[in-house]
Design goal:
The chain is α+β, with helices and mostly antiparallel strands and about 300 residues long. It folds into 2 domains: about 130 residues, no CATH class; about 140 residues, 2-Layer Sandwich (Alpha-Beta Plaits). Strands 1, 2, 3, 4, 5, 6, 7, 8, 9, 10, 11, 12 and 13 form a 13-stranded mixed beta sheet that branches. β1 and β2 form a beta hairpin. The mean pLDDT is about 90. This is Methanogenesis marker protein 11. Pfam families: TiaS_TCKD.
């Protein structure tokens, strides 16, 4: 029989907590990276009842809370609504989140989140047992950076989805956190290498300098490792990419010319970093960030 020593038997620290805001600080997405999926599932169920929460999504081992920015009153009830998010506020370049919970939910609202990567500081009450507890954490305010990439491979070797993930994973840092990767199915045009897919990467960046640095680094890595002379790379900074939906629909249901793609990108605030033929699919990938289960399906429209 093994005798174990648990340093913190009643704490499971989250791997990381990050917050992406829209430019007007009206909405935020709290992205939590837990170590215990069971605990995250319990939190997701209860937190979804919080008045500020508009939508909750799970992508891989991350939970993403789409919220209004503001403060609400939580009427917590054991078993039915035992924990929630009480407030999300923005102060200059930082975001403050206040969690509340009863019993074990209070432990999650305090210690488990306070010690996560990405947390600058925290203020927590005693938790556990029959207590009602609150925890406030302060994290950097981030904005979303979406990067579409296509045509890094040839018919002989390579795979864009693997290269893009490996680059993003290698460049992941506190200033530009790598948040998601989606493979996007495109219309199977005659010039495809095999499956006709592109890739979109999502980062959460603390400021414009961080955005520009990560874009320069990704471009440099693509030029180093791509085996194709047709690589396309585009970037869009915004809370969503709804303005690119119509283009993506066209590209997923038929052939689109490079000239049209370049014009569409310029007219909709998309930066072109590499202008090979792959720019067609790279642009079409942008609306599918954080939608990896939907983006792999070939259909004629977006939900």
């Amino acid at each position: 029989m093994r005798d174990i020593e648990l340093e913190q038997p009643y704490t499971i620290s989250y791997k990381g907590i990050y917050v992406v805001c829209d430019r007007n600080n009206r909405y935020a997405e709290i992205i939590e990276h837990p170590r215990c999926y069971g605990g995250a599932s319990w939190a997701r169920y209860h937190y979804s009842n919080s008045p500020l929460i508009l939508q909750v999504n799970t992508i891989g081992d991350m939970t993403r809370y789409y919220t209004k920015i503001g403060t609400s009153n939580l009427e917590l009830k054991p078993s039915a609504f035992a924990a929630g998010i009480e407030s999300v506020t923005v102060k200059n370049d930082k975001v403050e989140i206040t969690y509340a919970g009863l019993g074990g939910g209070g432990v999650g609202a305090t210690k488990c989140r306070a010690y996560a990567d990405g947390v600058i500081s925290y203020d927590i009450t005693e938790s556990g047992g029959g207590r009602s507890a609150k925890g406030k954490i302060i994290v950097p305010r981030r904005e979303r950076l979406i990067i579409g990439i296509d045509d890094t491979d040839t018919k002989e070797k390579g795979a864009t989805w693997t290269l893009t993930h490996n680059i993003a994973d290698a460049l992941n840092c506190s200033e530009s956190v790598y948040l998601s990767h989606s493979i996007v199915q495109l219309y199977p045009v005659s010039s495809k290498t095999q499956n006709c897919v592109s890739t979109v990467l999502e980062f959460g960046c603390v400021d414009e300098n961080a955005k520009n640095k990560i874009l320069q680094e990704i471009k440099s890595a693509l030029l180093k490792y791509s085996v194709s002379d047709k690589t396309g790379m585009v970037a869009f900074s915004g809370f969503d990419a709804v303005d690119i939906y119509n283009y993506s629909k066209m590209c997923r249901s038929g052939e689109v010319s490079k000239d049209f793609a370049m014009q569409y990108a310029r007219e909709h605030g998309v930066e072109i970093w590499l202008d090979g033929e792959g720019v067609i699919g790279a642009l079409a990938a942008l609306p599918w960030f954080a939608k990896p289960d939907e983006s792999i399906k070939l259909d004629t429209g977006l939900q």
